[in-house]
Design brief:
This protein is mainly α. 65% of the residues lie in helices and 0% in strands. The longest helix has 29 residues.
């Protein structure tokens, strides 16, 4: 999986890095189109999954695909909010990258499920595919996920408060996501799923570095 396209929500905002050259600058319509394109590319990528084996409904791979889709969906919403509402150029950049990248991964995971003949949602409880999964679900939320109250707080925040709240919430979100990815890497045996999961982990670890650096720069 390739890294998501670099995006910026403001045509007159200075580059956050100060020296990596000009970047494509897209408005809200542009990021919305990028998210849709990422989803379609994800579906196309998922169709390339070898079909020599078909994980079952209660398999580690199916559970991971279903749960990580839901986990990613919240990250996409958070990323879109950051792209639209962030006051710091780097926060907007990070938000747009996460939204487009994780939407593409949702497309891949949903295509896996279809190619395996499985429904997008299963009968197993959340996180049942992980050995310690039951203990990781808190009030129905998977590791790192924001509560409805936290999401409302993010939607209502403005200015620097919004930027720092987004960074803190996305750091927690990614830490939980990496833990889930480690679960499928430890217990899964479908080569394409393992390959994609490792790419997801690498991407999220890079994101975490960028998120933490931005938080430090903003004094959070």
């Amino acid at each position: 999986m390739t890294a998501p396209a670099t995006l910026d929500s403001s045509s007159d905002a200075p580059a956050a890095d100060g020296g990596r050259g000009s970047r494509p600058r897209l408005g809200l319509v542009g990021i919305a189109v990028a998210v849709v394109v990422a989803l379609l590319l994800g579906y196309a990528g998922g169709l390339l999954t070898p079909r020599l084996t078909r994980p079952g409904d209660d398999s580690v791979e199916a559970g991971f695909a279903r749960d990580m889709t839901a986990h990613h969906a919240q990250a996409v919403e958070m990323g879109m909010l950051a792209f639209q509402r962030g006051t710091d150029p780097e926060v907007r950049q990070i938000g747009g990258d996460i939204a487009s990248g994780q939407q593409g991964e949702i497309g891949i995971m949903q295509t896996w499920l279809r190619s395996w003949g499985l429904d997008p949602t299963g009968t197993q409880p959340r996180m049942a595919w992980m050995a310690d999964g039951a203990s990781l679900v808190k009030n129905g939320l998977m590791p790192g996920m924001a509560t409805p109250q936290e999401m409302e707080q993010l939607r209502a925040a403005q200015g620097r408060e919004f930027d720092l709240l987004f960074l803190n919430m996305m750091i927690n979100h990614h830490l939980g996501g990496v833990h889930m990815i480690d679960g499928v890497l430890d217990a899964g045996d479908e080569p394409e799923v393992l390959r994609t999961a490792q790419i997801m982990k690498n991407t999220q670890q890079t994101d975490l570095t960028n998120l933490q650096n931005a938080k430090k720069r903003l004094g959070g």
